[in-house]
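Worked problem 6 (solution included).
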Amino acid sequence: MIEARHLSKFFGDNKVLDDVSFVFEQGKTNLIIGQSGSGKTVLMKSLVGLLEPDEGEVIYDDRNFCLMGISERRKLQQEIGMLFQGGALFDSLNVEQNVMFPLNLFTKMLHAEKLDRVNFCLTRVNLEGRNKLMPSELSGGMIKRVAIARAIALNPKYLFCDEPNSGLDPITSGVIDELIKEITEEYNITTVVNTHDMNSVLTTGEKIAFIHEGKIWWSGTRHEILHTDNQVLNDFIFAIELTRRLKR
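Solution. The predicted structure is:
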């Protein structure tokens, strides 16, 4: 479980996060949705320590991340997997080397042990035997699956995904959504996903936070979101659906 308690973040005089409180539950796919500039990316960066909140606390299973020193944070960050927008693979490294990167950085495992872990993760994302391919040889969906394999290499307790479906066609997006959901449930991970993809919301949104102007304007499940009387949220859903149809 990850808990945001009264988080606020300023950039100059601009208050990007305004007293945000939310509980991201273990074993569930927790979604953060909102318009561009609403504060959802700042919230995610504040949760993982890429930004320091000006007010409030971030709690990882009763551990106050904001009060930790550098060594304590480094230890906790070994429990975190990150799936970056676009995949963010290293172009000069092959698939095997990309997935092995966090194992080289954070563990003292023997090479054979690391290779076993890499092969396990690649098999889990249905990329068995693709070890020696370079990123330039991969499709967009394969890049995301390699990135997921790298994100779970350290067997994380917490998984953060920033726009995991960005740039993917609807079918491939569905595959990635289902893979993230399966891994979350299988390993009982606390997963936090930034997304504006309504298909993702309606298929994987077990707990959803809608951010508007730096505040939580609505929270609920994928079953509740279509029946809300929150006009700002309804306008957001309509705008996303209209954009999707226009792109067809």
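Discussion: The longest strand covers residues 14-24.
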